Amino acid sequence: MTDHPEPLLSIIIPAYNEEQRLPRSLDQVVAFVQQQSEPLEVLVVENGSRDHTTEIAEAYAAQYPFIRVLHSEKGKGAAVRVGMMAGRGRYLFICDSDLSMPIAEVRKFLPPVLADYDVAIASREGPDAQRYGEPYYRHLMGRVFNFIVRVLAIPGFQDTQCGFKSFRREVGRDVFADLTLTGWSFDVEALFIALQRGYRVVAVPINWYFDADSRVNPLPDTWRMVRDVLRIRLNGWQGRHLVTPSPCHPVTFWHLL
User: Fold this and answer.
1) Which residue(s) pair with 204 in the sheet?
2) Is the separation of the CB atoms in 147 and 158 below 8 Å?
3) Binning pLDDT at 50, 70 and 90, where does residue 257 land?
């Protein structure tokens, strides 16, 4: 047991070979957490790094008690799943380590700005969303993949791949307990499971800045993600994820703030 109050939010940062970007990102996250009136926690989930990611994260955790360092098998999805199961916050927030979405945008996912949801996903598409510095070919690649996702798995959502998503704790644990994908496409599967189970999913427009040090390898990763979406669709046809959550939320809707 812990004597610390329940955090409002757990910020889950999957980290693989992030020794270059992690200090800068954690400095910004620490400053954000220290400005909040309610307690927050930060979970850095290292997943098979071969550099000094673990040492850097542990040095921050030794200095700031609201930071914890966890470990998982390789794969971003595997890291996020560990964070979802370990997070103590009322909301569990997935946060890419490059902070391509400025950390202050997290407030858009929290009460009183936003409260009535089960899953909230950051969206770089639609009114009030802005992309900065993204090459055209990367945007085109993303739009093609999103079209495939909408046709096969998740209709109605214009951006399922942005790496910033918030789950109510009970929902996150229910969804990620049945996650089968551990790579880049894990979030498509997580949203598919959430929708299959009737959870309320909302899209939140954000400001997003392209990071030239992106770990996505356009052609091989796109093919792997398309293959994963087909697998997700097959699981859906087989009724794999049709488990009634408790409490049940029978109405699913899409909302763009």
Assistant:
1) 122
2) no
3) very low
Task: Specify the range with the lowest mean pLDDT, choosing from 91-95, 102-106, 139-143, 164-168.
Answer: 139-143
Are 167 and 109 in contact, with CB atoms under 8 Å apart?
Answer: no
For residue 23, whether the previous peptide bond is cis, meaning omega lies within 30 degrees of 0, is: no
Which pair of structure tokens corresponds to residue 62? 């030794």
At position 13, the amino acid (one-letter code) is: I
Do 171 and 194 form a contact (C-beta atoms < 8 A)? yes
Extract the tokens encoding 221.
Answer: 């990763």
In single-letter form, the type of residue at position 119 comes to V
List of residues 6+ apart from 133 with CB closer than 8 A = 209, 210
- The domains found in the chain, sorted by start residue, are 1-99 (3.90.550.10), 115-163+173-257 (no CATH)
* pLDDT (0 to 100) of residue 248: 40
Whole-angstrom Cα distance, residue 19 to residue 30?
17
Torsion over CA of 105, 109, 111 and 112, rounded to 10 degrees? 60
CB 119 within 8 A of CB 171: yes
Q: Decide: helix, strand or coil at residue 21.
A: coil
pLDDT tens-place string over residues 203-229: 999 999 998 766 666 566 667 778 888
What pLDDT does 249 receive?
41
